[in-house]
UniProtKB/TrEMBL annotation, chain B:
GO annotation, cellular component aspect: plasma membrane
GO molecular function terms noted in the UniProt entry: ATP binding; ATP hydrolysis activity
SUPFAM superfamilies (alphabetical): P-loop containing nucleoside triphosphate hydrolases
Xref: Gene3D superfamilies: P-loop containing nucleotide triphosphate hydrolases
Highest rank taxon of the organism: Bacteria
ABC transporter domain sequence ranges: 6-247
Taxonomic lineage from the root: Bacteria, Pseudomonadati, Pseudomonadota, Alphaproteobacteria, Rhodobacterales
UniProt entry keywords in alphabetical sequence: ATP-binding, Nucleotide-binding, Transport
Pfam families per UniProt: ABC_tran, BCA_ABC_TP_C
Name the UniProt record assigns to this protein: ABC transporter ATP-binding protein
Nucleus keyword on record: no
Keyword field contains Coiled coil: no
Length: 327, 251
């Protein structure tokens, strides 16, 4: 077996094993912490498709994370206040059903990614980073100034949304739900990278001219990647809001986008489990360091600096070596 | 009379004060190798880009298979059946040799919107890619990372990727560069046979290869074609001798 495969298996199993231990020790807070890492990992797995495979450094993925969060917040808010969301010639009610909320989160963030991607993918390099950042900030300020859904204060949802057959308020059951979703997306992303689309997208990152010369369009490849990427991050946003039972404009903030990039860089750009490793390390550091100092992020910054300077492939790259071209 | 497959009609392109292409007209007939030669800075690469895509001419038309492709993108021209190789290798360097060739086959099949099944397990695509690699003699390097290929091998891979497209015409920008004497000879033999599949517009500095292969030669100097003819006609042309071949005896 390849070293990266073993490492991936260890990283993958680390989460349920840690959750099971926390469950055995009756530490629900730790389970929630692990769930948080899994959701961050999911958001960054989404970004990794655009950033790692497609070479599109988006500093605006918080937009999709926030859209997913507000999809949950708005639907659940209307359900808990028994006020229809739209009440004119058609009536649309809110909902507390997770599958419906997820669907809405995925569709709305995919549509937003389609619009943002169609505009920003006409640029590249630093301009692309700046434009995606600008879109993210637009959503941030819009959320702050929109009083209907809490404005700056955000929205509280009193009871976690429901999933058929589960008690989602039980930390372990909610973790399992998140972990199953993360597993499914990771499985798909692993397939996607090897599929015809993945080969063409990665070739477009390496050499757009080459892709054009064989009659394929880099723009459309990147746009589709950006939409899938945004949709996955949007789904993570809905789960994150449900984890906290709270949404606020900070989900849209550029610091959020930056954190996703940090997860990927820490773990390994373009590696399937890079974002998982990065998110787990980040949440672990947050847990260990934040009681020691208010300025714990300084240490995270120092670690990031070390990774960028001395371990260019991130955690996965330094432990498993250079990526092996797919068979 | 047979129709030309590729017809470049009165192309002009200026970059500021520099007239890079100055009223170029040329044709590529089925089954022929038409070589384009000229000193450095004559505007060969600019002309190639107007033909294969990448640079839009100021005036003039490019016809391919009777269709006006002047306004089409590189991508659309490739789909129409124009196979191109670059002067400076343009490949996916992190991918394997076989993956680059599969990408070509994928482009030809147009089946890129598939998100689940591994492309390297697609027997039809891989078979086409492997066949193309075998034809240029790169089959032993199929699993090699492209970045690890020598300069000459990269040129061969460029040709192999163009082959997977099964194009109706080739536009090749210096395929012999970096091949060395024996490699150059093999490539010459290969291109000699290839013209029966699809005609080749060949930009090349290797004069032995050009004179051995070309049915017709056009000489480009300062953006203008100063002569077009067979190898013997070009050798004998006094304008060419002074403008391009200089005083040296090429006969």
């Amino acid at each position: 077996m390849r070293r990266e495969t073993i490492l991936n298996a260890v990283l993958y199993l680390a989460m349920p094993v840690a959750a099971a231990l926390a469950f055995a020790m009756d530490e629900p807070f730790l389970i929630t912490l692990i769930t948080r890492a899994a959701i961050f990992a999911l958001a960054a797995v989404g970004l990794n498709l655009a950033l790692g495979l497609g070479g599109l450094v988006s500093l605006g993925h918080a937009a999709f994370f926030g859209i997913g969060g507000y999809a949950m917040g708005i639907l659940a808010h209307h359900a808990q206040t028994y006020s229809p969301m739209i009440d004119s010639w058609i009536v649309i009610e809110g909902t507390k059903s997770m599958p419906v909320i997820w669907l809405v989160a995925v569709v709305t963030s995919a549509l937003a990614a389609l619009a943002i991607g169609a505009l920003s993918l006409r640029t590249s390099g630093v301009y692309f980073i700046m434009i995606t950042l600008a879109f993210g900030q637009m959503f941030y300020y819009f959320a702050i100034s929109w009083p209907a859904y809490g404005g700056e204060d955000g929205l509280s949802i009193y009871v976690r949304n429901s999933f058929p057959g589960l008690n989602t308020l039980d930390p372990m059951q909610f973790f399992v739900l998140v972990f199953v979703i993360l597993s499914a997306v990771l499985w798909w992303m692993g397939r996607l990278a090897r599929a015809p689309f993945g080969l063409a997208l990665s070739a477009a990152r390496q050499n757009a001219e080459r892709v054009e010369t064989v009659g394929l369009g880099p723009f459309r490849l990147r746009l589709v990647a950006f939409v899938i990427s945004g949709a996955v991050t949007g789904l993570a946003g809905a789960l994150f809001a449900d984890l906290n039972r709270f949404v606020s404009p900070t989900m849209f903030s550029w610091q959020m986008s930056g954190e996703f990039i940090v997860f990927i860089v820490l773990g390994g750009v373009g590696r399937l489990f890079g974002p998982v490793a990065g998110a787990m390390l980040f949440v672990l550091l947050e847990y260990l360091l934040s009681p020691l100092s208010e300025f714990w992020l300084i240490y995270v910054g120092a670690i990031l600096l070390l990774v960028v300077l001395f371990a260019r492939g991130g955690l996965i790259g330094s432990l498993a070596g250079r990526e092996v071209a797919h068979d | 009379m047979t129709e030309p497959l590729l017809h470049v009609d009165g192309l002009y392109k200026a970059f500021g004060a520099l007239q890079a292409t100055d009223g170029v007209t040329l044709t590529l007939m089925p089954g022929e190798i038409h070589a384009l030669i000229g000193p450095n800075g004559a505007g060969k690469s600019t002309l190639i880009k107007q033909i294969a895509g990448g640079v839009t001419p100021d005036a003039g038309r490019v016809w391919f298979k009777g269709q006006d492709v002047t306004a089409l993108s590189t991508q659309a021209r490739a789909q129409a059946g124009l196979g191109r190789t670059f002067q400076i290798s343009s490949l996916a360097m992190e991918a394997t040799v076989l993956q680059n060739a599969v990408l070509g086959a994928l482009g030809r099949a147009g089946s890129v919107w598939r998100f689940l099944r591994p492309v390297m397990r697609d027997a039809a695509l891989v078979a086409q890619a492997q066949a193309a690699l075998e034809r240029v003699g790169l089959a032993d390097h199929a699993a090699t990372r492209t970045a690890e290929l020598s300069h000459g091998q990269r040129r061969l891979l460029e040709v192999a990727v163009a082959l997977t497209l099964k194009p109706h015409a080739f536009v090749m920008d210096e395929p012999m560069a970096g091949l060395g004497a024996s490699g150059s000879k093999r490539m010459t033999t290969f291109l000699d046979g290839l013209r029966r599949e699809a005609p080749i517009l060949l930009v090349e500095h290797d004069m032995d290869a050009v004179f051995a292969l070309a049915d017709r030669i056009s000489v480009l100097v300062y953006g203008k074609i100063i002569a077009t003819g067979t190898a013997d006609e070009i050798r004998a042309d006094p304008l060419v001798r002074t403008a391009y071949l200089g005083e040296e005896d090429v006969a």
